[in-house]
Amino acid sequence: MAADPSRSRRSVPEDLARPHFIGIGGAGMSGIAKILAQRGARVEGSDARESVTAAALRGLGATVHIGHDAAHLAADATGVVVSSAIRENNPELVAARERGIPVVHRSDALAALMDACRPLAVAGTHGKTTTTSMLAVALGALGLDPSYAIGGDLDEPGSNAHNGRGEIFVAEADESDRSFHQYEPEVAVVLNVELDHHANYASMEEIYDSFVTFSDRIRPGGVLVVSADHEGARELTRRVRERGRVRVRTYGEAEDADVRALSITPHGLTSETTVLLDGEELTFAVFVPGRHYALNAVAALVAGTELGVPADELAKALGTYTGVRRRLQLKGEANSVQVIDSYAHHPTEMTADLEAIRGGAGDGRIVVLFQPHLFSRTRELATEMGESLALADASVVLDIYPAREDPIPGVTSELIIEAARAAGADVRHAASGAEGAELAAGMAAPGDLVLTMGAGDVTELGPDILARLPQAR
């Protein structure tokens, strides 16, 4: 099933030869734009504000406008790329439709880039970015030079996308809007299946149907790699095996897993994992903390071996992974207090990261500055978010980050605060980022860890907290 590497390296779809990206600074959009620029396309786009990502795109030759205006759409644009977050009244999208310029969804653009390669797509409610990153780094360390498109920037090699010379293309597959139905992977990974993305899925049954559709699109002779530990993932395995269209290989700590994690031993902010793979024990280190991340590494190991990479070589290469930005990323230390950033915004992710951090905190306390993400998610999961925050020693909760959503009457961060207090948490509200940073810094003593947590702009508050810490005590 090998692809022509020269084709995968140079091929640009006709309607993406002169693309215009609306929201080019987004994690998913910028990755596709970078790959197209590296393949020689004349990339242009717009974003709401200036950013490091915008600067990186300009460094690759792309034109990036700040703000949205119909005048930004070039006369010779061959296609306009959008994500599900772009509203129909966006002036650039309106202009594209009026001029008859093809409008391409982000997922269709990514699918076109993967077409001539050996695609490996990673899906699941939590852990996609980490697992995709682990694969990209490990395969790169082995000299395979994969292409990749990831929803976050790697610590190493420092980008969310790369147009490699190898035949493998590793991609994060977004189930939130069903856009992962556009991909045809040779190997698909499903880390977990849970009810999330409430604006697009009304029930678990809809979620199962969506993941089954994703599984059905695996190329003939390919494989689905899926967790044996999560109830939802096990139900997906049952349904996919019942259909009999694709081979399934499970992994995890469950006794019936095809590839079983025998032990996960924490060592501060790292862990050592031993797996039973094809009848042989294999031990390797992962330089990120916690059971959740160790199991992501096991998923990456299984997926890579399904592409023919020797297991012992891949296991060693996984040890070169040092993390991804916003996934338990150390932002700095002041007054003997470490500030760490977490992208966790769903209760399962929040719990996993807090448990992982607890293992590396020693005798120190954990202080969380949490920003809820989306009104719809808060409405459905406020109680569970509050219960997760009870795992910290103290928390500050900011107002909801709306992202693409309009407010929902009665849905505020107070719902989470009430649930956290009911679960025994020490929690306070902050009306602004500056207030939240001040409160978090004031709660922290030498030896403590402060965790900024959420998918919004709470990530920007790490330096503010660090600046306030010397005055905190």
Structural commentary:
- The radius of gyration is 22 Å and the shape is globular.
- The chain has helices spanning 5-10, 27-38, 52-59, 91-99, 106-114, 128-141, 204-216, 231-243, 291-306, 311-318, 347-361, 375-389, 414-422, 433-443, 462-468; strands spanning 19-22, 44-47, 63-66, 79-82, 103-105, 118-123, 147-149, 161-162, 168-172, 187-190, 223-227, 247-252, 259-267, 270-277, 280-286, 327-334, 337-342, 366-370, 394-397, 427-429, 449-453.
- With 473 residues, it is an alpha/beta fold.
- Helices cover 35% and strands 22% of the residues.
- It contains 15 helices and 21 strands.
- The protein folds into 3 domains: 14-103, Rossmann fold (3-Layer(aba) Sandwich); 116-319, Mur-like, catalytic domain (UDP-N-acetylmuramoyl-L-alanine:D-glutamate ligase); 329-468, Alpha-Beta Complex (Protein-Tyrosine Phosphatase, Chain A), CATH 3.90.190.20.
- A 10-stranded mixed beta sheet has the order 8-7-9-6-10-11-12-13-14-15, sandwiched between helices.
- Its EC number is 6.3.2.8.
- Its main location: cytoplasm.
- GO terms for molecular function: ATP binding; UDP-N-acetylmuramate-L-alanine ligase activity.
- It comes from Streptomyces nanshensis.
- Keywords: ATP-binding, Cell cycle, Cell division, Cell shape, Cell wall biogenesis/degradation, Cytoplasm, Ligase, Nucleotide-binding, Peptidoglycan synthesis.
